[in-house]
Amino acid sequence: MTDKSLGRFYVLAQEFWSQLPPSARFRPLEDARAFSRHKELMRGWVGQVVQGFYDTLFGHPATRAIFREGERPARERTLRDWYLRTVEGPFNGQYFAWQTLVGLVHVRRGVTNAMMAAMWNWVVDTVSRLAREHLSQEEAQALADAWRRLGFTVMALISEGYLHAYLEALAHAEGVEVGVFLQRAQEEAARLLASLSPG
Ligand code: HEM
């Protein structure tokens, strides 16, 4: 992936990132340091993470149905690369732009935000458990916190990217601006809520 083809995702990722209050999102200094202190240890977890991730997805009918026959080895390779790049750092604009693009790759295959959020939860749970097994309580906590903030932050970018992709497709089909659909969605939500209120 070249920087040029990521350009559009840089802009989107930055726009979504700026919506997150700094104390409630990934902390580029503190969290990146926690990753960096333990990257060698975390590299060693790649096999378990990849195997467990796909056992989980293939063990559940709704997520199993997303995959094509014989696709698993290729998917394991891409998740392996993703995990190793994540534990390696750095957590720069390119990384977050790439995560926004990865979200879109999933939209193409019908993977929902619900599935993505559940698997981020699985990843955070798994690395936090491994951290507790291998590190002092304090370091395990710092690493688990860093992963949790990363997971929520990336999931925020993915879910906004998902919405943006759908709105853009609708706007394109109707020949109007994306903003028109956002406005309509707000109005429709207000109308629906008003119809629910008693009296
Ligand atoms: C923590 C959540 C997830 C991460 C980090 C992740 C990561 C990735 C990455 C890095 C790729 C390769 C993207 C590329 O080609 O540039 C990919 C592709 C793919 N992932 Fe995921 N994934 C996640 C969740 C899921 C879930 C929940 C499903 C299905 C239920 C899924 C199914 C797929 C499929 C089918 C592809 C191939 C897409 C295509 O090229 O057509 N992933 N994933």
UniProtKB/TrEMBL annotation:
Q: Which Gene3D superfamilies match?
A: Globins
Organism's domain of life?
A: Bacteria
Q: Which InterPro entries match?
A: Globin-like_sf (IPR009050), Globin-sensor_dom (IPR044398), Globin/Proto (IPR012292)
Q: Where is the Globin-sensor domain?
A: 30-167
- Protein name as it appears in the record: Globin
